[in-house]
Amino acid sequence: MKDHKPVVPGWFTTDDEDFRLLGTRCTACGTVFFPRQDTFCKNPACAGTEFEELKLSGRGTVWSYTNAGYRPPAPYVSDPDVEWVPFTIVAVQLAEEGMIVLGQAEPGITVDDLTVGAEVEIVPGVLYETEDQVFTTWKFKPTGASA
Amino acid sequence: MTREREVVVLGAGMHPWGKWGRNFVEYGITAAQAALADAGLDWRDIQYVAGADTIRNGYPGFVAGATFAQALGWTGARVSSSYAACASGSQAIANARANILAGLVDVALVVGADAAPKGFFAPVGGDRPDDPDWVRFHVLGATNPTYFGLYARRRIDLYGATVEDFAKVKVKNAKNGLHNPNARYKKAFTLEDVAASPVVADPLRLMDICATSDGAAAVVLCSKEFAAKRTTNPVRISAVSTVTPTFPSAVIEMPDIATDSSAAVQPNDLSFRASLAHAAYEEAGLGPEDLSLAEVYDLSTALELDWIEDLAICGRGEAEKLLRDGATEVTGRIPVNASGGLGSFGEAVPAQAIAQVCELTWQLRGQAGARQVANAKVGITANQGLFGHGSSIIVTR
Ligand SMILES: [Zn+2]
């Protein structure tokens, strides 16, 4: 079996049971960061330098969505010999964190399956594979509920 | 109006947009010479050269001001080079203006030129997980049109916009571009043409999205005293806004994969794009009701509609109505992209914001030919690029 490796280390849990994006929170002002921030706080009114890791919400609502009708250029990894199948990209609002996070939708989910305001959950997925490794990432999957 | 803070656009010039296959310096020199001729000046009269950088043409592109100065012939002029993504041209204008307003120089030349690659803009090479521009391509496959698609979809789901509205923007801008000798595409398009083009980033099709182009634009800026001896009807730059976003920025913007968090601090009422225009209005002492026309950064057709609202020309969700009513046509109440916009030009990154000012200059002088906006007195530009860069410039006469 191929070795599984996160596409970027430290950005999400490797536990498929409770899969979450991992961010950090400034202990001084409470601002949340994803991608994680570990050295300085981007709140101009805060001089915080201490950050704690936190799991971001496992569900959010669709802020918007689109797809990739054409093969994106490198450094996106795809096999140029395989016919291009558009993937869907979703911008998801996380209420508690007060932020919007982008991600690909699960394979098979098209723009017709989505609507602004619909609920999605964050699930583990595969970005691409090489001969000996599987690079994992996060994906969004509609729950069927509208928020 | 804050008249004492104005500089004059004494000359404007461009090299036509297209895919010419030549060096960006050639385009820049053509535009510079056209602007100098328009100003009635010799290159040796220029005291300050502000170049807008291109990052896709090697070292000469990173030091564009010096590259153009050397190509025109070293004269000992002061020089600067600016990179600010799509707002590079505006930052070059801002540099020249600041030097003139500070009384350090009387007259400056601003030049931006690009020779662009084909297809999507991609990040520069190498594995760089700390660079958001690399991350969004590698981890998400998120190109620039991805973001335009997200914004466009929101207009449909929130405001009831249709893909036909977006196509109408293309049809309008293509019609304007027909009359612009510097535009790349001088061809009329129909709604059916747009609908027949392939989907790039749903709901946007290929003809909704601006291409990349070669091109160059230049302006000669000077103090009012310098201009007084040379023109009786000066076109003036009354505001140059190049503000950053404010924390927390709540709209997902290129190249980020997440917004700032508003868990601790509430976002500003004004979005980043709206704040660019707001700062320009404040600086000029003018408001949207004073505008004769607007040149906005229609990287996509739908984005033109966002900009109309960001400029406070109408409320949120009302731009489609203006478009459908014909208000944004050259003959309408508030013409938008009379030049033909990026839809007719394609994007030549460091030249584009300067080209917007060229168009407003010609419009305000009454020299815009068949695309002339009647009695144009006040024009605004709006532009946004990656990494919190953007600009809005107000030109008056
Ligand atoms: Zn903080």
Question: Could you give a quick summary of the protein structure above?
Answer:
The complex is a heterodimer of chains A (147) and B (397). Chain A has 147 residues and is mostly beta strands.
Describe the structure.
The complex is a heterodimer of chains A (147) and B (397). By secondary structure, chain A is mainly beta. Chain A has a domain of 86 residues. Chain A is built from no helices and nine strands. The model of chain A has no long low-confidence stretch (mean pLDDT 95). Chain B is of the alpha/beta class and 397 residues long. The interface between A and B is large, with 50 and 48 residues. Bound molecules: zinc ion. Zinc ion binds next to loops of chain A.
What descriptors fit this protein?
heterodimer, A: 147 residues, mainly beta, five-stranded mixed barrel, three-stranded antiparallel sheet, 9 strands, 0% helix, globular, B: 397 residues, alpha/beta, Peroxisomal Thiolase, Chain A, domain 1, nine-stranded mixed sheet, 14 helices, 11 strands, binds zinc ion
Give the distance, in angstroms, between the N- and C-terminal Cα atoms of chain B. 12 Å
CATH superfamily of the largest domain in chain B: Thiolase/Chalcone synthase
CATH classification, class level of the largest domain in chain B: Alpha Beta
Shape summary of chain B: globular
Q: Numbering strands along the chain, what is their spatial order in the largest sheet of chain A?
A: 5-6-7-9-8
Tally of distinct domains of chain B: 2
> Percent of residues of chain A in helical segments?
under 10%
Quaternary status of these chains? heterodimer
Bound molecules: zinc ion
Largest sheet of chain B: 9 strands, mixed
Low-confidence regions of chain A: none
Helix vs. strand class of chain B: alpha/beta
Give me the CATH fold name of the largest domain in chain B: Peroxisomal Thiolase, Chain A, domain 1
**How much strand of chain A?**
35-45%
Percent strand of chain B equals 15-25%
